[in-house]
Amino acid sequence: MVFSKLKAILGSGIQVDTLLHEKHVVPGGTLKGEVRISGAEVDASVESVEIEFTALVEDDSKGEDEPGAVHDYFKAEVSGKFDLAKGTAHPIPFEVQVPWETPFNNVDVRPLVGGMKLGVSTHLALDQALDKGDLDWLTVEALPVHKAVWEALESLGFAFQETDLELGTIQGATVPFYQEVEFWATEGEFHERIRELEVVFVVGEASTDVVFAADNSAELLAPDLNSTIRFSVPTDSADVVETVKAQLTQLAAQKGV
């Protein structure tokens, strides 16, 4: 169990404690917890309480050495309006779905290289004023489709290098960033044909689009069509080796290698 405290706001003395039952989640899964509101020095009217999913996103236009910015990408209201009497407490249990497009930063309990940070915060609207608590960082485990593509690439001679979040929206996505997972071809039949492979997932409940960009000098928001390819697989996929191999073969042919 993990606590996060929201500072007393607007001189009201109200304190908000957010308890997460588990900080290890999966996209499409459930985040459970409780928001505990207490300590009002006067009667107060709470307009709403929301849980916000956030991510630390890089902006390449500002240079690699610049720190990323925190972006909210999904809000779930866990309480509507209620009155909080002076000196009383108001617990709000909640269960919210983790967005399907949430990036992953863990594969089989292994943190990924790249320092990507994902989290949630509590957002309180009180008497027409707003305040937000500190971030609770989350560990987001890869889905079966992430692992299936990962394992297929490894079986074909690719090695994982790092992952990060880039600012911008990939076609078909709804979030204001995309996750790049970078692999290098170190052996196998694609070793001499593709050096660096960037992989992007656009996840849905039933199916997931996968984007491969091979040695691509252009941004994925405006990619070189000769060095990128996009295909779909079921989100619950367990074995996609032949599909991945076929797509890589076609991608290499597009590049003329």
From TrEMBL:
InterPro entries: Spore_0_M. This is Sporulation-control protein. The lineage of its organism: Bacteria, Bacillati, Actinomycetota, Actinomycetes, Glycomycetales.
